[in-house]
Write a structure and sequence with these properties.
alpha/beta, 8-stranded mixed beta sheet, 42% helix
């Protein structure tokens, strides 16, 4: 449910985006579609990084020429957030970063600051619906929390007030469910490729693995030889693997699954 419109609400919210990576790309596209949001500038040092997706008149490469606005959204690597914030100290407007792993306090030198974290994996030029993406917000001042809610609801239907500690936990969990999962998919892709098989044959299995989570927990959904305690199949699989790294990962994951379900085996 959208928050009630308060006196803090403005008919047109003005936004600056700082950065040229995947998050900046998708935020620019989403915010530009809202009739209640006006993107004033998108700033990055390299013009070529921006020209593929930003309207030319909005591109800025001079950090000393960033304009005042309602909210400056920093979309850069975690290590660069504090450096970019220094350029914004004398400007009007709320400053937020989009990092999942960085505390709100990295912006402490500013008078108004917060976090605007879309919890999703982003790749440039891949269409994605922002309406389905959870946006985690945090701000030093209560009024700024309400403003960020109003802004976030313009592009997403899932907006949550999350503390820095909670956000770091979410980011850690996201590494397991997204980054590590994707690496396992890469290893599976390599195994079938090395044996002249088509990876597409595994996609219905992957889809069902994800769909199961609509009806049960990951603990309940687990299947496979390690879940069953089938040591014969596990040893056969290990014998099939030629790369030591793949064997190590298979063994450690199998042992983790067996430990999780040990009392049932």
């Amino acid at each position: 449910m959208k928050p009630e419109i308060s006196a803090y609400f403005r008919p047109m919210m003005t936004v600056n985006i700082i950065g040229a990576g995947n998050v900046a790309y998708h935020l620019y596209r989403a915010l530009s579609l809202s009739p209640k949001v006006k993107v004033l500038q998108v700033t990055a040092r390299d013009y070529k990084q921006l020209e593929d997706f930003v309207t030319p008149k909005l591109i800025n490469t001079d950090f000393s020429k960033i304009k005042d606005c309602d909210v400056h959204i920093i979309c850069v690597s975690d290590s660069a957030i504090a450096e970019i914030a220094n350029f914004l100290c004398g400007l009007k407007g709320l400053v937020v970063h989009t990092s999942g792993a960085t505390s709100i306090n990295v912006l402490h030198q500013l008078s108004r600051y917060g976090v605007f974290y879309p919890l999703q994996t982003f790749s440039k030029h891949r269409n994605i619906s922002f309406r389905e993406i959870p946006i985690c917000i945090e701000a030093k001042h209560k009024n700024d929390v309400e403003f960020l809610k109003t802004l976030a609801f313009e592009i997403s239907k899932d907006v949550r007030e999350i503390t820095s500690a909670q956000r770091k936990t979410l980011h850690l969990s996201a590494i397991f469910v997204n980054n590590f999962t994707n690496h396992l998919l890469h290893l599976g892709h390599e195994i079938v490729k090395q044996n002249n098989l088509d990876f597409n044959i595994l996609k219905p299995l992957l889809k069902e693995t994800m769909m199961k989570l609509e009806d049960m927990t990951p603990f309940e959904a687990q299947t496979g030889p390690a879940r069953r305690g089938d040591q014969t199949t596990i040893q056969e699989h290990l014998a099939q693997l030629s790369e030591e790294n793949q064997k190590k990962i298979y063994t450690e994951l199998s042992e983790s699954i067996q430990k999780t379900y040990g009392k049932e085996l």
